[in-house]
Amino acid sequence: MRLSDLQNKDVVDISSGDKVGNVIDAEISNQGTIMKIIINDKKGFFNLMKSEEVSIPWAMIRKIGSDVILVSRNL
Q: What is the value of pTM for the model shown?
């Protein structure tokens, strides 16, 4: 999978079904594995009230589909 495959996918919270934002970037380790995805948080997923860049740890990602990435706040 390439980073370009993740970019601009919708990120959806599986507990509420709400769209969280879109993937805009990723944090990659020295070994080349994705550590976190960076999203444009539009709905306050992390209790933020304005649009900001937010990082989501890879462990929170539950499923990557063709159009969406499903995430869970419960680790």
A: 0.77
